[in-house]
Write a structure and sequence with these properties.
Elements (H helix, E strand, L loop, with lengths): L10 H12 L7 H26 L10 E4 L1 H25 L6 H23 L4 E4 L7 E5 H11 L3 H21 L3 H14 L6 H13 L5 H4 L3 H32 L3 H11 L5 H9 L2 H21 L2 H4 L12 H5 L1 H8 L1
Parallel strand pairs: 1-3
Antiparallel strand pairs: 2-3
Helix pairs in contact: 1-3, 1-4, 2-6, 2-10, 3-4, 3-7, 5-6, 6-10, 7-10, 10-13
């Protein structure tokens, strides 16, 4: 685990609590578990060529490993990732006057560890797969086997088709980052830019009042701690994330009909599931900004399809050439504006 924020967050506590909250997932025999792991690994390998042929993106030779993990493994991996991404923010907060130390730091790190652990524990039961671009040296692809099994059972879909469908989406993310070596550094640079906007003095007091507003129903926790300057940075990141998620959705649906017989049924059932189940789940999704995450899939896919339909896949790939070609949040909603600016 990286050292970023090591004093501000008790990462050991976060991983331990998150793993307990996440649970183990559906009951499955050892033999079946081995078969699922093998099939997911094979699906990721098979997807590499399928993504390349559909998108024209030439990913570097596979250097980012594929890890098939359980929920606890996902929690541990993301605690590592969080510590890297949050490092510039934590460094800014601890550099200011009045930064916690000694007893207050020890207590505060455990409180923060509980909060991060609870968040990771909740998400660990939701995520099917993820590409972690910040893991040294070349990133890594995580596939969460128990969640894949849980969802394929819940949706009552063909398990072999569903596993390949998930692999197509996540492998697209691996290709996006390995074909675009500057992309991970660009996103990390945005985190540094966000950290530069923070003023430690009064940050906790202002943040708590905004969080209270979010809990009462006004926006997400992300909105709650964002000043106008920070919102500008977050809007840029939202544009990039919408592109990444929408592009992956378009690829999985574009490739799917040729290799996944039941892809139409899977997509229909999966879209319904993305809306959330119970009221508590919907409240948590709103507070954590996951409703916005769902919009990224939808809006990003519309952007990609519009550009491809009007200009072609090769022209869309201009978006991966340099940071200036990335779409803004407003251009995601107005693809013709991006086309006019970049193409």
């Amino acid at each position: 685990m990286t050292s970023g924020g090591a004093g501000m967050v008790d990462w050991t506590l976060a991983v331990s609590l998150g793993s307990r909250i996440a649970g183990e997932g559906p009951r499955i025999s050892r033999t079946e578990a081995d078969e699922v792991v093998a099939e997911l690994r094979a699906g990721a390998d098979r997807s590499t060529g399928l993504v390349r042929d559909f998108t024209g993106l030439a990913a570097a030779e596979r250097t980012a490993p594929v890890l098939v993990v359980d929920r606890a493994g996902w929690v541990a991996a993301n605690a590592d990732g969080f510590s890297t991404v949050l490092a510039p923010v934590v460094d800014k907060l601890t550099a200011g006057k009045g930064a916690p130390s000694g007893w207050s730091l020890a207590v505060g790190s455990r409180v923060t560890g509980v909060e991060v652990g609870a968040l990771l524990g909740f998400l660990a039961g939701k995520v099917l797969g993820q590409f972690d671009p910040f893991h040294e040296p070349n990133g890594r692809l995580l596939l969460v086997a128990p969640n894949v099994v849980h969802v394929e059972r819940e949706l009552d879909v063909d398990p072999h088709d569903f596993r390949l469908w998930v692999c197509l989406h996540e492998e697209t993310h691996r290709v996006q980052f390995t074909a675009t070596p500057w992309l991970a550094d660009h996103l990390l640079g945005e985190m540094h830019a966000l950290a530069d906007t923070l003023e430690p003095a009064g940050l906790l007091e202002d943040g708590l009042s905004r969080i209270s507003e979010a809990v009462r129903g006004h926006g997400s926790l992300l909105d709650a701690v964002s000043s106008p300057e920070q919102k500008e940075i977050i809007d840029r990141v939202t544009g990039v994330m919408s592109l990444l998620e929408g592009h992956a959705d378009v690829v999985m649906d574009g490739v799917g009909p040729g290799v996944i017989p039941s892809v139409a049924s899977i997509r229909r059932k999966f879209n319904q599931r993305r809306k959330g189940a119970g009221s508590l789940d919907k409240i948590l999704r709103r507070l954590l900004g996951l409703d916005a995450k769902m919009a990224q899939y939808r809006d990003g896919a519309k952007f990609v399809r519009h550009v491809v339909d009007h200009a072609g896949m090769a022209e869309l790939n201009a978006v991966w050439e340099r940071p200036e070609n990335l779409p803004s949040k407003s251009e995601i909603a107005d693809p013709s504006a991006w086309t006019a600016r970049v193409l």
